[in-house]
Amino acid sequence: xxxxxxxxxxxxxxxxxxxxxxxxxxxxxxxxxxxxxxxxxxxxxxxxxxxxxxxxxxxxxxxxxxxxxxxxxxxxxxxxxxxxxxxxxxxxxxxxxxxxxxxxxxxxxxxxxxxxxxxxxxxxxxxxxxxxxxxxxxxxxxxxxxxxxxxxxxxxxxxxxxxxxxxxxxxxxxxxxxxxxxxxxxxx
Length: 188
Hints:
Blueprint: H1 3-18, E1 22-23, H2 27-34, E2 40-47, H3 50-59, E3 77-85, E4 88-99, E5 104-111, E6 118-126, H4 137-141, H5 165-187
Antiparallel strand pairs: 1-6, 2-3, 3-4, 4-5, 5-6
Helix pairs in contact: 3-5
């Protein structure tokens, strides 16, 4: 085996490794970070009816996914994670995944349970290095206070991440979808 074969093998291994997802937070870490002061965290699984899915789609501009549905996703099933302290709900989170051009982006988005407005968010996973800056607090804070009926368009209503316009747009859709899901299921 020559040096060129070894270098080729190393290059192929590096390319293969870069195609896999980078985990920023696992589910346990994300939930703990979002509900630091909660003394109780409980999950509630919901299966949406066709009519509910249509309402969510309408709030999201007619589609559930910005680009495409991730493989293996059942678009009718969602898990809502409620954090409470002393029996009072502090927030409700949804972990959602959408694909951009390079692979899946996964975020946890937390809403105020009374208003359905976004109060916190964190990136959990990404594939392409261009997407990693979506984890910046400054980007995510642009969505705080927005709900299902608020406009969320990059460059107009919220600032995008330079060099990650597609990923920023995908997060806009994901955040709007989480707010729409909560509105349709809980706020009616």
